[in-house]
Amino acid sequence: xxxxxxxxxxxxxxxxxxxxxxxxxxxxxxxxxxxxxxxxxxxxxxxxxxxxxxxxxxxxxxxxxxxxxxxxxxxxxxxxxxxxxxxxxxxxxxxxxxxxxxxxxxxxxxxxxxxxxxxxxxxxxxxxxxxxxxxxxxxxxxxxxxxxxxxxxxxxxxxxxxxxxxxxxxxxxxxxxxx
Length: 179
What we know:
Mg(2+) 2 binds at residues 105, 107, 120, 123. By secondary structure, the chain is an alpha+beta fold. Helices cover 25% and strands 42% of the residues. The protein has helices spanning 121-130, 136-154, 163-178, and strands spanning 9-15, 21-33, 37-42, 46-49, 54-56, 61-66, 71-78, 81-89, 93-95, 98-110, 116-119. Strands 1-2-3-6-7-8-10 form a 7-stranded mixed β-barrel.
């Protein structure tokens, strides 16, 4: 598998289990790229929905993708703190300037005080039937939600106190190089 280069601009492609495109983020700057982890940043980037609608992200975000975990984490930097939006998803793959994953509907929203809520359980149930998710998907996602909640409670990975500062500083460094 190819590895994205630090400072490189890539696209993020989200798919559904049936192979259809779900959403595309046009530009994300790679801050770290290894075979297992990609950390990126974007700010006011164009997002294209499957139905052709477009919108632009409102705040700077640090994005965390892992090749072994069934989730990705978007850290949204807002005036009143960092909000986290987690997509329960397949591990990522990277090729041809595109980071790709399958979105499995369930999402977790984490607030600056580290409280959280699980979202879209009804959407997961509906798509599980429509797209015939394999039965082991429930086990995989349950196990990964448990892992994610453990990370939140222990303040590990992107939830660690110094994570945002370190990667925001790296983002500003690369942004200045490109100006």
